[in-house]
Amino acid sequence: MNASSERSGVPLEQLFAELVTGVRLQSQELKALVGVCCLEEPAKLAEQLHRANESLKRVEAKMRTLQQYVAEEMACVPQIQEVCREAREQRRRAQALARALETEGRERRMNEVANGFRVEEAKENEPDSTSESVVSEASVARSRPRHRSGSRRSTEPVVPTIAPVSEHELSGVPGYIRGRVTLERLHAAVEEIHAILTVKYRLLARPQQQLSSAQLDQRCAYHDMETDETAGRFFFSDVDVRASAILKQDATGKAVLNVLRHLGRLKESRGGTHCRIWVVNEATG
Q1: Residue 121 within a domain
Q2: Contact assessment for residue 166 and residue 190, using Cβ atoms and an 8 Å cutoff
Q3: At what angle are helices 183-205 and 213-225 packed, to 10 degrees?
Q4: DSSP 50
Q5: Which of 78, 127, 146, 271 could form a disulfide with 225 if both were Cys (CB 3.0 to 4.6 A apart)?
Q6: Residues 176 and 89 in one domain
Q7: Do residues 8 and 83 both lie within one domain?
Q8: In angstroms, how far is the first alpha carbon of the chain from the final one?
Q9: What angle separates helix 42-124 from helix 12-39, to the nearest 10 degrees?
Q10: Long-range contacts made by residues 48-57, C-beta under 8 angstroms, separation at least 24?
Q11: What pLDDT digit, counting tens, does each position of 229-280 carry?
Q12: pTM score > 0.90 for this model?
């Protein structure tokens, strides 16, 4: 706003003050004109009209300057709003990255401590006798699990499995909750939830260096959804549900989640980004 005022050459406060003064002078001159008309003084009336005309022109010029100033300021409003939006987005990303880095550092330290304990335990359990330590290479090779080339090693996250719903349990659910949900649809939904959790927590378990930009954004979004209620718990959100064909939020899809919630398999809550989330209860894992 200061830059626009400098371009116009006159401060905003001074413009308003001069505008008010001009209006007052004009009203006084109009009163004087009325008095002149009553006194029938044509020469003085012409002079008063000339002064009133000049005063009106000055007021109109100041009004045009003011309108130009307001138009310039209003033209900058969308740019300022866009800058503010980008600043908020950058702050959100920075906070999410900081939380992700903190979590990864904590997990790395825990893994290092666990590896140290395993090394010390192996040294303590190492037999003293050379004859006992020499074991047949064939037996060792047979005892080791074989990994096919390109196969994943056993670093996959352990995702809880929702207990299947029995026919007796489903029949006990009130009709207004169950709707047209069948047992087969429930079993398919349970498998779909397990697949969603597997994909999600497999992504969270991967090192950040191996993630693409889109995967890193998805990981940050998952961390943003976490609350105190989800600490140490497994959950999925309505974002995951919308991407699923089996859990799509039509009447039957909503009824499926309501049935699982009624049976205690899931607990509905609100995530850190105010989205709907469903927490998998520990008793069902």
Answers
A1: no
A2: no
A3: 110
A4: H
A5: 271
A6: no
A7: yes
A8: 61
A9: 160
A10: 52/26, 55/22, 55/25, 55/26, 55/29, 56/26
A11: 888 888 888 888 888 877 877 888 889 889 998 998 888 888 766 677 777 8
A12: no
Residue 212 belongs to a domain:
yes
Comparing CA positions, the residue from 60, 80, 79 lying closest to residue 68 is 60
Whether residues 166 and 269 share a domain: the answer is yes
Q: How many CA atoms lie within 13 A of 256 on its CB side?
A: 23
What's the length of the chain? Answer: 285
Token pair listed for 222: 């998952």
Can you read off the two tokens belonging to residue 190? 């349970």
Question: What phi and psi, each to the nearest 5 degrees, are found at residue 243?
Answer: -85, -5
Task: Supply 225's token pair.
Answer: 């959804």
Cβ atoms of 146 and 154 within 8 Å: the answer is: no
Using an 8 Å Cβ cutoff, are 278 and 261 in contact? yes
Write out pLDDT tens, residues 40-79.
Answer: 566 666 777 788 788 888 888 888 888 888 888 888 888 8
DSSP 8-state class, residue 149: T
**What's the CA dihedral at 62, 68, 72, 74 to 10 degrees?**
90
Q: In what order do the strands lie in the sheet with 234-237?
A: 234-237, 276-280, 266-270
Full residue range of the structural domain in which residue 264 is found: 160-284
CA distance 160 to 227: 19
Tokens standing for 252?
């039957």
**Which among 66, 96, 126 is the end of a domain?**
96
